[in-house]
Fold:
Amino acid sequence: MNDITEKCGFVAIVGRPNVGKSTLMNKILGQKISITSRKRQTTRHRILGIKSEQNLQVIYVDTPGMHLGGKTAMNRYMNRAATTVLRDVDLVLFVVDISKWTKEDENVVRRLKREHVPVMLVINKVDQLKQKEQLLPKIAELSNKMEFTEVIPVSAKRGNNLDSLQNLIAHYLPESGPLFPEEQITDKSERFIASEIIREKLMRRLQQELPYALTTEIERFSSEKDMLHIAAVIWVERETQKKIVIGKNGEVLKDIGRSARIDMEKMFERKVHLELWVKVKEGWSDNESLMKRMGYDDID
Ligand SMILES: Nc1nc2c(ncn2[C@@H]2O[C@H](COP(=O)(O)OP(=O)(O)OP(=O)(O)O)[C@@H](O)[C@H]2O)c(=O)[nH]1
Ligand SMILES: [Mg+2]
Structure:
């Protein structure tokens, strides 16, 4: 008889924008699946990150930051992606930034209180705390925000305390065999990851509101003799934005293409030929049917 307990379950990573949810998932997986940046609202989709170990498979769900203020179809899509996941998981990691508690965190608490799922408070960015003696009072203060099943301080960026976090997570998962093949690390296609890598470079490079006015779409993704040929469109909302994305003598677009290609070659372990086109589609981010055609169609 086989008496080894196998465990497997879904763990949602939620919180307001910019607290480090995607950084945390990538660090736990040891691979960059989800894009990150200093700007808020970097993640727009739910992205699975699957970690398989002996007798244990944890399926993390990275989500867009739950936010207040935006009113476009894109804002609604992102908030929906972050909240509907709560119904379908075994455990929630509520990620907060130790240095900043905001109205948007309060909003997340309100959402979480409506669900019956265990919530673990993950207090991130502890490396940024200037005075170490502030740690315990901060933890005590944040622990009171709602009923948490566990509270744990971490630094996602530096990888501090992530082993303890993962040990705690395992307690909350049901007994079950693995739901995904051991070698599978995400539910997303290489096509999707390629379009996200380009979007990451745009998020990081462009200023102010521009990152929110654009999206990326892969038009061609084909393999020929050890070389991947990828052609992508960067959709913006206005002609003036197109000019900025291209830059003087095409410099901005060239830079973005170069850094995206380097990341893609690392990710796909092949040489990549990347072509980028910038096109205008007015009002795409407030138009649900256009958004669906551009790949924002994966949630109920
Ligand atoms: N100092 C420090 N910075 C961190 C840590 N974790 C994440 N960051 C930084 O915080 C910023 C936001 O990180 P993300 O992982 O993109 O945050 P997110 O919560 O996924 O953000 P959205 O996708 O916009 O909701 C990035 O600049 C990260 O490098 C940490 O532990 N310490
Ligand atoms: Mg993110």
The mean pLDDT is 96. The chain has nine helices and nine strands. The pocket of magnesium ion (ligand 2) is lined by residues 21-22, 34, 42-43 (CB under 6 Å). The CA atoms of residues 91 and 169 lie 8 Å apart.
